Amino acid sequence: MLQIPSLATTALITFNALEGFQAKDTPRNGSMRLTRPTRGRRFGMLHIAEEARVLELDAHVQGGRDGKGSGCMAEADGSDTVCYSMDTLNTVLAEMVIVVPCKDEDLSVIRGVISAIPAPCLVILVSNCKRGDDDQYIQQVAMAKGFGGYGRQILAIHQKDLMASAAFRAAGMSELADPVQGTIRNGKGEGMLLGIALASAFCPERRFIGFVDADNFHAGSVNEYCKAFAAGFAMSPSPELEDTMVRLRWSCKPKMRNGRLDLVTEGRCSKIVNSWLNKLFTPCSNQRNGGHKGPANTDANSPFVTTGNAGEHAMTMNLALKLRMAAGYAIEPFHFIDLLERGHLKHPGEKQQAVAPNGTLSPLDKPVRVLQVRTLSPHFHRASGDEHIRRMWATGLGSVYHGLAPYRSMPGSNDGSISKLREEVHSFAVERGGIDGAKGELPQPNIYPALENIHMARFREVLESSLGIGSFRAFGFTRWKQS
Ligand code: GDD
Ligand code: MG
User: Fold this and answer.
1) Neighbouring C-beta atoms of residue 237, cutoff 10 Å
2) Using a 6 Å CB cutoff, which residues line ligand 1?
């Protein structure tokens, strides 16, 4: 006779089956698997790696049972992959600050972005929203307080806070202030600089800093961005030995066109800026690298720099303090120019060192590795008009054009390749409407000095005295009790 098991027996069988399954086959915990860049190009102290890709967001940890979870696998396409366990990623994330620059995004969108930032990260919200009637900043602070109540560490500040510009002035950096208003100038780059200074002054124990835009409608992608930053640092040497920058390229940007969703793989601005950075950083084929041969297997024709305008990027804190930063949206392309100049054009080891008129610019004190990572998530954000995009590529290219002005060629060469590239960039801008009418040149964004030169203790002292009084707020910290 057929035995019908009781409900209790069925439950027991199911439970046992699951237990057996878990013991044998379930991965230890979530982890990120990426391709490992094995090729790259070196420019003196600067090393730029070819693009890596995130392959899995929650992968089996192959090997690496020691908690580091760095098991390697060979892929069908010949690339290596590497897998980092959540333990490893969390260790890095616990040393990371994420700066969220925001202007006038809806509160719900900013909330989504912060909600998706991994819990171990400390968040700094730098807002440049309009103030006055219907003050959005008050709502942003209330939101930050809510996150603090759940144990998140979060700092919030308004870019136009008079004490913020006073702190920079007192610390010896008055360049950030608007000469008329006295407050910090408008601009995303300026907001990010304020975020870096806050991180350095108030959270000096955190060794990594990342940036994510606040206008992201697909909040979950931000979680992947932060983990990709962490994976990039996990695959790099310790920050004591080498500085690292991780720049993200999104899998695509969804765009509505004629009622259809187009998945665009390169934005309008990135397409232009990347193409010129590629010309600058393409070795041998056109002698632009002054005879610095890339590895034999580097394909000079495939796009190499894919992250010229990476709004989502992260770096070691030491590097964030060391770099000069450009104003507004030129901040990301100019990273490459400052790194090239400090790591190669002014590299002390080079025989034929190109000399910039500004003799005060110090070379890099240790090697810098730039990792470019393509995420799985698309980037879905506020659509920008053509004029915004035109200004963005023009100031980005302007930072390249003006930044390279002191140089003719790469070290070790006398081929005038940098001068030629600048002429071509200028002609392109004339043709495509990128010239600043008044000067007849590409726009020249402000370049701010490195933050390492400011008196950080003084900066902290001034701002700490305004905590809870001006716009500066801290939530989720035991050392500052905040209302
Ligand atoms: N604090 C602050 N101050 N934030 C600002 C300011 C400012 O003056 N201006 C813009 N932001 C914030 C926005 O609120 C948004 O969260 C983020 O910076 C990016 O600004 P968008 O205006 O959305 O820029 P975008 O989408 O055109 O360009 C983004 O992607 C580019 C790559 O495609 C930016 O991240 C660019 O820097 C990046 O190059
Ligand atoms: Mg945007």
Assistant:
1) 13
2) 101-103, 105, 126-128, 159, 186-188, 191, 213-215, 267, 269-270, 309, 311, 329, 332, 381-382, 384, 388, 392
